[in-house]
Amino acid sequence: MTEAELSALAGIGGGALSSFTGIVRDDGGVTAIELEHYPGMTEACLSRLIEAATARWSLLGAVVTHRVGIVPVGDPVVVIGVASLHRAEALEATAFLIDRLKTEAPFWKREHYVDGTVKWVEAKSTDDTRSERWA
Amino acid sequence: MKLVYFASVREAIGLSSEDRDVPHDTRTVGDVVVWLRGQSAEHGHALNDLSRLRFALDQNMVTADALLADGQELAIFPPVTGG
C-alpha cells in the first residue's frame, strides 16, 4: 500500500531509508483484525508525531500509513518510512514513530476469530514502557 | 455537549455519540463521567472504572481532572491499541 511513498522517500537524495511494517499475526485462531479510529483526531495525531520526529532528528522525509476497518492475517496494518542523510537518524525516528503511535494515536483493534467470535485487544504495559523511553 | 464513544465503551453504551445537557455544576471531565454513570445501567457499566478510560476534549487528549471550559466535544474510550 505504501510502496509508492517508500520509493518517493528513497529518491529524496539521502543515504538512508528506514521502514517499519506491522503485519496482522495469526494469534491462535485470529483470521483478521478490525481497526476503529477517531476521524480527524487520528490524522492530526499522526501529523503531530511526524512533526515531533522531524524536530528531534535531522530528517529528509517521513511517512506514516495506517489501515482502518477489517485487515486479514498476513496483511500490513501500519507502514512507517523515514529518510535521512545517515542511518542513525532514520532508524531512531522510525522506532520513535511506531512506539509513540502505539500509545498515543487513537486506534482501537479487535480480533476476529475463526469461530466467529470477536475480542477487543487490551493495551500492553510493555508498549507504555517502550514509548516512555523517548520522553 | 456532544459525547463520543469508541471501541469497548461505544459497544457497552450502545451508542457512538449523543448530545447531553450536563448539569451546570459540572466542571471537569471526571465530573461528566460520574454524572453519566447515573444515566443508564449501560452507562454505569461502561464508565465504571476511571483508570481504564481515556479522554479527548475537542480532539485533544486530556486527563479526568481537565476543566471542560468551552469544550464542545468530549470523547471517552479505552486505552488505544493501534499499530
CATH architecture of chain A: Alpha-Beta Complex
Total domain modules of chain A: 1
Which class of secondary structure composition applies to the elements of chain A? alpha+beta
Q: Biggest β-sheet of chain B, characterized?
A: 5 strands, mixed
- The total count of helices of chain B amounts to 3
In whole angstroms, the N-to-C terminal distance of chain A is 31 Å
- Low-confidence parts of chain A: none
What is the CATH topology descriptor of chain B? Ubiquitin-like (UB roll)
Helix-strand category of chain B: alpha+beta
Report the mean per-residue pLDDT of chain A as an integer: 95
Q: Give the strand order of the largest sheet of chain A, numbering strands 1, 2, ... along the chain.
A: 4-2-6-7
By DSSP (H or I, 4+ residues per run), the number of helices of chain A equals: 4
Verbal overview:
With 135 residues, chain A is α+β, with helices and mostly antiparallel strands. Chain A is built from 4 helices and 7 strands. Chain A has helices at residues 3-10, 41-56, 87-104, 125-132, and strands at 16-23, 30-37, 61-66, 69-72, 76-84, 107-113, 118-120. The mean pLDDT of chain A is 95. Helix content of chain B is 27%, strand content 23%. Chain B has a 5-stranded mixed sheet. Chain B is globular, with a radius of gyration of 12 Å. Chain B has helices at residues 7-13, 29-37, 41-46, and strands spanning 2-5, 17-19, 54-57, 60-62, 73-77. In chain B, a hairpin with a 2-residue loop joins strand 3 and strand 4 (60-62). Chains A and B meet through strand 2, helix 3 and strand 6 of A and loops of B.
Task: Annotate the secondary structure layout.
The complex is a heterodimer of chains A (135) and B (83).
Chain A: H1 3-10, E1 16-23, E2 30-37, H2 41-56, E3 61-66, E4 69-72, E5 76-84, H3 87-104, E6 107-113, E7 118-120, H4 125-132
Antiparallel strand pairs in A: 1-5, 2-4, 2-6, 3-5, 6-7
Helix pairs in contact in A: 2-3, 3-4
Chain B: E1 2-5, H1 7-13, E2 17-19, H2 29-37, H3 41-46, E3 54-57, E4 60-62, E5 73-77
Parallel strand pairs in B: 1-5
Antiparallel strand pairs in B: 1-2, 3-4, 3-5
